[in-house]
Specification:
Layout (H helix, E strand, L loop, with lengths): L18 H11 L3 E3 L6 E3 L1 H20 L3 E2 L5 E3 H4 L3 H7 L4 E6 L2 E9 L4 H11 L8 E10 L13 E11 L2 H22 L5 E4 L11 E8 L5 E11 L1 H5 L4 E2 L5 E2 L2 E8 L1 H10 L16 E5 L7 H12 L5 E3 L6 H10 L4 E5 L1 H6 L1 E6 L4 E6 L3 H26 L1 E3 L3 H10 L3 E6 L3 H11 L2 E6 L18 E6 L3
Parallel strand pairs: 3-7, 15-16, 15-17, 20-21
Antiparallel strand pairs: 1-2, 4-6, 5-6, 7-8, 8-14, 9-10, 9-22, 10-11, 11-14, 12-13, 17-18, 18-19, 21-23, 22-23
The structure holds one RNA strand.
Amino acid sequence: MADNKKKMVEDITSMDVDFAKWYTDIVRKADLADYSSVRGCMVVRPYGTAIWENIRNLLDGMFKETGHENVMMPMFIPEGLLQKEKDHVEGFAPEVAWVTHGGSEKLAERLCVRPTSETLFCEHFAKVCSSYRDLPMLYNQWCSVCRWEKTTRPFLRTAEFWWQEGHTIHETAEEAMAETEQQLECYARLCEEYLAIPVIKGQKTDKEKFAGAERTYTIEAMMHDGKALQSGTSHYFGDGFAKAFDITYTGRDNKLHHPHETSWGMSTRIIGAIIMTHGDDNGLVLPPAIAPWQAVIVPIAQHKPGVLDAANELKARLAKVCRVKMDDSDNAPGWKFAEYEMKGVPLRIELGPKDIENGQCVVVTRHNREKHFVKLDEIESMIPVLLQKVRDGIYQIALENRENRTFVGHSMEEIMKFSAEQSGFLKTMWCGELECEMKMKEEAGLTSRCMPFEQENLGDVCPICGKPAKTMVVWGKAY
RNA sequence: CGGGGUGUAGCGCAGUUUGGUAGCGCGCUUGGUUCGGGACCAAGAAGUCGCGGGUUCGAAUCCCGCCACUCCGACCA
């Protein structure tokens, strides 16, 4: 089209030109979130909130199936309480916000706005747990937390973010370990099955584990630009917190014991992962399971007699098999096509006079723009099939991207070559020493993402120091 | 927290060098014509020029301070 019209404001920066700008363009133009006057904080718009609600419902269902109960804890933590566990406070103190006044009165003890609620749960567990019969306690809360981050980006890193945090205590270490693994599995299932995001499950190194945890498990996803995004974590605390907070119960042996504890969380950051795993230069691409609208009906020549009636009838029928919207606004069809592509609606259904004549409609899958001509009397059975095709299609694309960007490093030369030329995951063997992890960071700019549960034997020595290797590590650059 | 960039209508920007009535495109409102890939015509509404101070007869423009956003590092979900 040879016209000299300016670029429309709705146009999205191509991801090859400027990935960061592409990302924020999508956040704003797909109407997911907006900035607010509070430093580093975002407004999650209705469309973004609807996505989060869908994720939340899926996760909440899984938690409840496995016996967890929701609770609501205070948003403030007294300074003294936060300081009870040494590693924990050291990890979080630098980034907490403090409340110093109530009204005009200065508080005797300042309160921090929760950055995470381990301390509050521990204080509470100490009160309500007295016998082995009380165990396990399987609690979860949906809330927002506050971390005074230096630099922020919508969904990926904001001063306040929404999440769920599960906190459980158990009679035995084995039970708590099983819980930690089970909850990581929940997150992995959510990502793989519902969000169509392939993840690597593994354990964090000591350097990267949660402040106060004995072990941290993680799922790591790879974004379009090759960077890693930690998409969910599950921690095993042993009895460290229980000792610090004096949580005890009388055991079957009539003696006092400390319970074993876990915590696990997934945040609105996962929306950032969806954007950067599936999105393209036309906008967002949503996995059907969490798309606010799974299909949008665009009537063509809607002023012509019969078109809107047919569109409304189609909508009523489809409402029984999926979340569907019909757009009868005055905007031109082309405008609607672009709009719903930007919003990542998995299926677009075009219905015009020609279709009605032929007893069909045109269904276009968002991720590849493939057109499917579907008979109107078969539409109810075809939609679920096409939604599944979208899920499988975008999963496959994401998996291929990850595989194309995953490399193996057998020597420091190979590691440096990867660092200079590639962005993605690098698998190497590792001796287990912090020193080598530090060297990896300083020389190659890579941090350990995890030690995958699925280990591969890539050699006998740590390529960084030459000493015998203990585990395989996946390295990368992280968000 | 270190280094760079940017703040002018809802969004994207011009105007700042050289001080002199605040502009353009998109969007929005109303009416009409359109409708299978971001339609067209006409008429309209909308701005404490990020905030605070200073210089000046006069500041979007010059000076000082602050704030926010953003990119690149360090830190984190």
